[in-house]
Design brief:
Blueprint lengths: L7 E5 L6 H15 L1 E6 L10 H13 L3 E4 L3 H14 L9 H12 L3 H12 L3 E4 L2 E4 L14 H6 L20 E3 L8 E5 L2 E6 L9 E6 L4 E6 L10 E4 L2 E4 L11
Parallel strand pairs: 1-2, 2-3, 5-6, 6-8, 7-12
Antiparallel strand pairs: 1-9, 4-5, 7-8, 9-10, 10-11
Helix pairs in contact: 1-2, 2-5, 3-4, 3-5
The protein binds manganese (II) ion.
The site of manganese (II) ion (MN) has 6 residues, from helix 3.
Length: about 260
């Protein structure tokens, strides 16, 4: 089937308040790859330098007529609760210090109400389907599959001691699953033959890595370097993922 070049999807990893990098990555993907739909893997506003700018850029993108939505990250969920309490006049000490900092920056940038709206939309979406692909924040339990993984795990899943990242054990049965949440040095692409089955697009921008978009229809990764390292010049371009082979199919227990 032919995919219209105007109908492409950019799936962007955890932004964490890195507004400049987000703006640059959106410019690159919209201009070079005719992206018209943006899906973010969540964890939008915490940790990084410019949550107000991040909200403003996402609003502008929507005004320009692009479809834009984010799945719910663990930090979006926590921040959404914190902002709700602060906006309703709750005592600052009742929320985590990190969330107070985000709140103060949003106030300074005049974006509190817009951030509350953005997070209200975000926390509603544990996963977003685009064709046969599913975007979610943290991952799935490969032994249970997409449908049977607890929504809490889809948002919070962390490999425990000795537990492997979910994508190493996912056989692709439930189609392509794309996550963020766990920063990696270069994006992860697990494939069965030519077909990608698992992608991690969080390349740790807020920690000095890069911000990456996965172009779903062309199976390409485009990154811009993080500005969170002093003196580093911005540079965008196509990057090669870490390629891994999908796990062998598992015998799954029947549910019901
Ligand atoms: Mn996360």
């Amino acid at each position: 089937m032919n995919t219209q070049s105007q109908d492409r999807t950019a799936i962007i990893g955890d932004v964490h308040g890195c507004a400049e990098e987000l703006e640059e990555l959106l410019d690159v993907t919209v201009d070079l790859r005719s992206v018209s739909r943006v899906v973010l893997t969540g964890d939008l506003l915490t940790k990084g330098p410019d949550p107000a700018g991040t909200v403003r850029i996402l609003e502008e993108v929507a005004r320009r007529g692009l479809e834009v939505a984010s799945v719910c990250g663990n930090q979006d969920l926590r921040l959404s609760g914190s902002l709700g309490r602060l906006v309703e006049g709750g005592r600052p000490r009742s929320v985590a210090k990190a969330d107070r900092l985000v709140h103060d920056r949003l106030v300074k940038g005049g974006m509190v109400d817009a951030a509350v709206r953005l997070l209200a939309d975000t926390v509603e979406r544990v996963e977003i389907r685009v064709g046969d692909a599913t975007v979610l924040h943290a991952g799935i339990d490969p032994a249970l599959g997409l449908a049977a993984t607890d929504p809490h795990d889809k948002i919070h899943l962390k490999p425990g001691a000795g537990r492997r990242p979910w994508w190493l054990d996912y056989d692709g049965t439930d189609g392509l699953v794309i996550c963020g949440h766990r920063p990696v040095a270069s994006p992860i692409r697990s494939a069965r033959g030519e077909r990608p089955v698992a992608v991690n697009v969080d390349t740790g921008c807020v920690g000095g890595g890069s911000l990456t978009a996965y172009i779903l229809e062309t199976d390409e990764f485009i990154s811009v370097e993080s500005r969170q390292v002093p003196g580093r010049a911005a540079r965008g371009g196509i990057v090669a993922p870490t390629a891994i082979e999908a796990a062998a199919p598992l015998a799954r227990g029947r549910v019901g």
